[in-house]
Write a structure and sequence with these properties.
Chain lengths: 181, 607
């Protein structure tokens, strides 16, 4: 287990509706079609088959990012056991599993204004009809690429590459600040 | 000022005379069809309203209220409500339009577009039509007489409608007047374009949030705060902030870079290389895939070893380069240039999806997963020795161009034995959250060995002393591997790779191509200007015959003189010759050399 005392997590601005950063175990799983079903066995939940949908079970989630690409999320510090479990389940399958736990930063946004805050700088419609609970996609927020996922009606989770996280969080705060004034 | 009343027939009856010092003028009333027109909708002439109104739509918009020629407050409100309800219904939402009641004093559209005749003047020779540009009916008559019959031509001839109101007050009146004069209907004369914006827009609105620190994302590496605290001067590299040099009090950049370079050559230096692009290529066909992408062969690269790779475009010109390490039989760690990270990943994904979907190989960007700490110099191994666990650092176990896994400061590490300085060198890769702590540990351990943090400027000098090219500095999108002195990297036995066929084109093999060489000024104190031209014959008058250009030029502290890299026509055949760099102050004589200035045998690299 890595030494927690020397870890330095990206520092981000704070707000009541902003929960960040969210350290996590993260993997990008890519592979041939059969790998997805097999990986579900190893990860403990069926990976989504439908485009732009997330599957969750307890504190684990799998986000569909592309026909052969899934983002797996789990609590912080589980890289080794999950990698081992997936390797067992995927034996004989053609796939790629890459640890990206530190590549990106999780940013949670919640509350009645969450949808509005995100829509301000995101070209996609995020209303409940066009972007229902359980939907996820890669898109942009301002000038940064993000993954956005809606786990609940008034809860969004962004996954942002670490060097863009400050920009995204500060832009969210700026939008919020202006709309309050 | 004499007042008058406009009759139903357009005739004016003379009224009172009043004293005044200000006159407010109105262009009359016409629907504001700008937004509709800007959405590419077709306007329709309504003869009864004597106005253009929205006709066929191009977009799924709806016009409601006064902008489509509907009058009266209550009518307008209900028209808007119904249009909104219809739009919602067509989008799959339910709802009905509320019914509004409004009591308001209604206004009259009485009047007609055109210019009013002035009592006593016939024809109305000098009525103002464009109040801002002072265009009168006389100007419009002249335009028509000159043969400008399209309203677009009339506009440009008279400047009517070209002021800041963009014809809002004058457009319809000018059109109606010209049409009447030509005895045509307004649609036959045409309509000028409704350009955006409808009203003047402030620059602030255009800028929105794109200002200050939100103008662009500012990307920083895990050691940014440490560099800031240690006085780094930063430079922008794409969106990244990279430490350029670490001046001590009283040092300018030249002095700081000289000190940093000498430290790397004599002891050791530490450098943040985290911004380099990184791509993990995984799958049974990963080696095959990389062998098709890069000019090099990767099938015969052993696990734990690394190779310098050159990536071309289809046209055979150098696109990117980097070190590619085989970390497992089916797993490669590919590095790209900082600026090339995104486009190389995109290019690779494109080839995988469109050309070779049969290959079992998948790409994942790991650029930001790793913090990369380069430790370079003859003492680098001594610094590392007390820090790493599980890695044998001896030259036999970890030779130049190899990679091993181990731990540092208790956290997992990928350790590369690589060098972009020509010295014994390592690149420590740790998960990004540990980057700063590991950097600090390396720095502390290196104190007794003379460790010196160095920035991108010293990195540039150190690699130039060794003749290592930088893609985008020595290359400019028209340089082949052979031009850049990288022909050795090409695995010629391979059946194919991206760009291979283009390298067989006659122009690519013809003599006279620019080749990478070194230039040494006859005066060792003279530092050439990057981008300067190179000529063979001095004292030419323009147009001179140019045979090359300087790509990199620095003062080298370890050599005690200036050095330069250049791309020169048939350069390798000119080694030993004297050429000239013409500058405003006169021709600077330079000696052509091989592009490696320091430790040409590479002894230090393998230390």
């Amino acid at each position: 287990m890595a030494d927690a005392t020397i870890r330095r997590i990206v520092g981000l601005p704070t707000a009541a509706w902003l929960e960040s950063p969210l350290p996590a175990t993260r993997f990008i799983l890519r592979g041939a079609p059969g790998a997805r079903a097999a990986a579900g066995e190893g990860f403990g939940l069926s990976l989504p088959e439908t485009a732009c949908r997330a599957a969750t079970d307890g504190n684990r989630a799998a986000l569909w990012l592309g026909p052969d690409e899934q983002l797996l999320l789990a609590p912080d510090g589980e890289v080794e056991p999950i990698a081992a479990s997936l390797a067992r389940a995927l034996q004989g399958h053609a796939y790629s599993l890459v640890d990206v736990s530190h590549r990106q930063v999780g940013i949670g946004i919640h509350g009645p204004r969450a949808e509005w805050l995100l829509e301000s700088q995101c070209p996609l419609p995020l209303n409940l009809r066009d972007f229902p609970v359980g939907m996820c996609t890669r898109t942009v927020f301002g000038k940064a690429e993000i993954v956005v996922w809606r786990p609940a009606e008034q809860v969004f989770r962004l996954e942002v590459w670490r060097s863009f996280a400050t920009y995204v969080a500060e832009l969210l705060r700026e939008v919020d600040r202006e709309s309050i004034a | 000022m004499t007042l008058g009343t406009v009759g139903a027939d357009g005739a004016i009856s003379r009224g009172d005379t009043v004293d005044c010092d200000t006159v407010l003028m109105s262009g009359g009333y016409t629907p504001s069809v700008h937004l509709f027109s800007q959405s590419r909708g077709k306007l329709r002439w309504d003869a009864e309203l004597q106005a253009f109104v929205p006709g066929a739509s191009a977009e799924r918009e709806r016009s409601a209220g006064a902008c489509r020629g509907v009058d009266g407050l209550e009518v307008v409100l209900n028209d808007g409500a119904q249009a909104g309800a219809a739009a919602a219904s067509d989008s799959g939402f339910e709802g009905t339009a509320p019914r509004y009641r409004a009591v308001a004093r209604e206004f009259s559209r009485r009047g007609a577009p055109g210019a009013l005749a002035q009592p006593g003047n016939d024809p109305p020779a000098k009525a103002f039509v464009d109040f801002q540009s002072d265009v009168t009916t006389r100007d419009l008559v002249l335009a028509a007489r000159e043969g400008f019959e399209s309203i677009e031509h009339v506009k440009r001839y008279t400047t009517t409608g070209m002021a800041s109101d963009q014809g809002k007050t004058s457009g319809m009146n000018a059109l109606a007047f010209v049409a009447a004069g030509l005895d045509r209907t307004p649609p036959q004369v045409g309509l000028t374009t409704f350009r955006m914006p409808y009203t003047p827009v402030t620059f602030g609105s255009f800028a929105g949030y794109d200002r200050g620190n939100l103008f662009d994302p500012v990307r920083t590496t895990p050691t940014h705060e440490w560099a800031l605290a240690h006085g780094a001067v930063f430079e922008d590299v794409g969106l990244w902030k990279r430490a350029r040099h670490f001046p001590r009090p009283g040092e300018d950049m030249h002095a700081a870079v000289a000190r940093e370079c000498l430290a790397v050559r004599s002891a050791c230096g530490v450098f943040d290389a985290s911004t380099l692009g990184k791509i993990e290529v995984v799958g049974a066909d990963a080696a095959q895939f990389l062998s098709r992408m890069y000019v090099n062969n990767f099938a015969n690269l052993a696990v734990g070893r690394a190779r310098y790779g050159v990536l071309l475009r289809e046209d055979g010109f150098v696109y990117d380069d980097g070190v590619i390490a085989r970390v497992a039989n089916d797993r490669f760690h590919v590095t790209t240039t900082t600026g090339g990270a995104a486009r190389v990943l995109g290019m690779m994904e494109d080839y995988l999806q469109t050309e070779w979907p049969d290959l079992e190989a998948w790409l994942t960007s790991t650029t930001e997963q790793w913090s990369v700490i380069a430790l370079q110099g003859p003492r680098a191994r001594d610094v590392l020795a007390g820090l790493v666990e599980g890695v044998d650092l001896s030259p036999g176990a970890l030779p130049h161009m190899s990679v091993a896994r181990g731990r540092i400061c208790g956290v997992p590490m990928m350790l590369f034995r690589v060098s972009f300085t020509g010295e014994l060198g390592f690149e420590i890769n740790v998960a990004a959250d540990y980057g700063q702590a590991v950097w600090e540990a390396v720095y502390a351990a290196g104190k007794s060995h003379g460790i010196t943090p160095y920035g991108t400027e010293s990195m540039h000098v150190l690699r130039a002393e060794k003749g290592y090219v930088i893609v985008g500095q020595e290359t400019d999108g028209t340089v082949t591997p052979d031009d850049a002195g990288l022909g050795w990297a090409i695995a010629r036995s391979k059946p194919d790779f991206v760009g291979k066929r283009s390298l067989e084109r006659p122009a690519i093999k013809a003599p006279g191509r620019k080749q990478l060489v070194g230039l040494l000024t006859v005066d060792p104190a003279t530092v050439l200007e990057e981008g300067a031209q190179v000529v063979a014959v001095p004292a030419q008058s323009p147009p001179m015959q140019l045979i090359g250009h300087v790509t990199s030029s620095y003062a080298s502290a370890v050599l005690g003189r200036s050095i330069a890299l250049a791309m020169v026509a048939d350069g390798r055949a000119r080694i030993g010759q004297t050429l000239y760099v013409p500058m405003p102050g006169g021709d600077i004589p330079v000696q052509v050399t091989a592009p490696v200035f320091y430790d040409a045998e590479g002894v230090r690299l393998h230390g």
